[in-house]
Amino acid sequence: MGRVELRSPLIVASGPGGMGEYMAFINPSHIGAYILKTITLHPKEGSTPPRLYSTDRFIINRIGLENPGIDRFVEDVKRGIYDELFEKVPVILSIGGDTHSEYMEATQRAFSILPRFTSVEYNFSCPNVESGGLSMVADRGALVDVMKEVRNMVKNTPILAKFGIEGIFVEEASDMVAEMGWDGITLINTIRGLVKTPEGKIIRGGISGSVLKPISLRAVYEVRRRHPSLFIMASGGVYTGDDVRLFLEMGADAVQIGSALFKDPSIIESIYRDIKGE
Amino acid sequence: MKEYKNTTIHIKDTFPLTDDTYIMTIREEIEFSPGQFLMIETPYRSTRKPFILGFFGEDIAISVHVKGEGTSWIVRQRALKAHFPLGRAFMPPPGRGITIVSPASFTFGCVMFRIFASDVLVGTRKPLKTPVPFPSALGDEDFKKAIEDIKGGYDYYVVNGSRGMERFVYSEIGENVWVSMEEYMACGIGACKGCAIKTAGGIRHVCIDGPLFRGDEIIWEG
């Protein structure tokens, strides 16, 4: 990846992967990295329940970026809470925010722990938070400023930008990533949707699951055509070894596995065996 | 890091407890603590379904209330993919207790009986088709009367049933009531934060903080 070598193209996605819990089911040597849940400047309690609902093809979630905030997270890293995870696998930090200043401030406060991470994935696309994610993308000026300033600030750790397909075309997003010297792009995030549960509750959240696969494949394909050497991490609808092969064929350098973990917490092991022909 | 098993479990026997709830006994020796659960994969959901672990007779067992395609499919299987044990072990306070269960959590009542010598009351809307060694209350009126009868007679009350049943018992008895919370769940291991519930102490998660909570912790909404 840019300045980092991955020992496997399989990556645990931010969000579903939590804070390393799935390592209980994964052989460390079978994944290239584990991306932690997005951390924001301020602690977030997350959305009010219900937070998710699933069908056979998709999951809708409105977790709302529940996280302890960057200060507490940095403290936890320094206290050794994640030492076991760091020892086992390369770990990627995910940073999110609602505004330009939140991204910058969170980055600043994380600075002392960045050497522990293989890279940082900036989540510019979480559609769950009313004023975050999408509005950041929608405010192109602020997005450009964040990307420029983060690149200037973080010189020794590879940085990835995670974009969805809403609020910005992936072609434009990838141009920005390339022009500003970022190390790669993650495509895509969940897509906004709405479900009425059998109990009559309405969930407005992000759609993930196998239904995303053709959409994320197209995003990867278009960006690869446009940027032959840009590092691309695919995310969205990956459930099988065939899926991984297809994403790699369409131009991905690595493939994230997220919601599939809910179907089978050991699914990365099955996929690994499949792609290795074991 | 916690240790879990993710494997295929084999069903020894499946039989109806009521006309829509089944007991499924499991061949494997599963190590679990009271209150812990497993999650079962089905072809009908992108997430697994949680079921509280328990006993029926000498066997490890789960109760399955058939509500849709997924649960209908589960009760027809002889082998199921599942991960376990999940959730926080429940330890009741000292003293004499009673566990009030619906048919869908009957096997949990058997755990409380066997491990803590808790009395058990089965509250059911449908007649039981299988004899059980505990008293039962059939229908809402019978159940209300049973709760009136036990009120004040125990040091603790544990309720594992529908949200309506749990809310009713909590509102009638108030103190020293524990309830088993249900919320849509995806991972079962604390990773996804999907199974959040509101409590007096803020957001908590059924899969790692529960499933059993003190009734006075819960913010009863909806």
Please provide the ordered H/E string of secondary-structure elements of chain A: EEEEHHEHEHHEHEEEHEHEHH
Look at the structure and give the CATH class of chain A. Alpha Beta
**Spatial order of strands in the largest sheet of chain B:** 4-3-7-1-2-6-5
Compute the average pLDDT of chain B: 96
Contiguous runs where pLDDT drops below 50 for at least 5 residues of chain A: none
Instruction: Please tell me the total number of domains of chain A.
Output: 1
Largest sheet of chain B, in brief, is: 7 strands, antiparallel
Percent in helix of chain B: 10-25%
CATH class division of the domain at 5-86 in chain B:
Mainly Beta
Secondary structure tally: strands of chain B: 15
On the 0 to 100 scale, the average pLDDT of chain A is: 94
Please give a structural write-up:
The complex is a heterodimer of chains A (278) and B (222). Helices cover 33% and strands 19% of the residues of chain A. Chain A is an alpha/beta fold. In chain A, the strands form two sheets. Chain A has an eight-stranded parallel beta barrel with strand order 1-2-5-6-7-8-11-12, surrounded by four helices. A four-stranded antiparallel β-sheet of chain A has the order 3-4-10-9, with no helix packed on it. In chain A, helix 3 (100-110) runs parallel beside helix 5 (140-153), helix 6 packs across helix 7 (213-226) and helix 8 packs across helix 10. Chain A is globular, with a radius of gyration of 17 Å. The mean pLDDT of chain B is 96. Chain B has five helices and 15 strands. A seven-stranded antiparallel β-sheet of chain B has the order 4-3-7-1-2-6-5. At the A-B interface, strand 3 and helix 9 of A face strand 13 of B.
What's the quick description here?
The complex is a heterodimer of chains A (278) and B (222). With 278 residues, chain A is an alpha/beta fold. Helix content of chain A is 33%, strand content 19%.
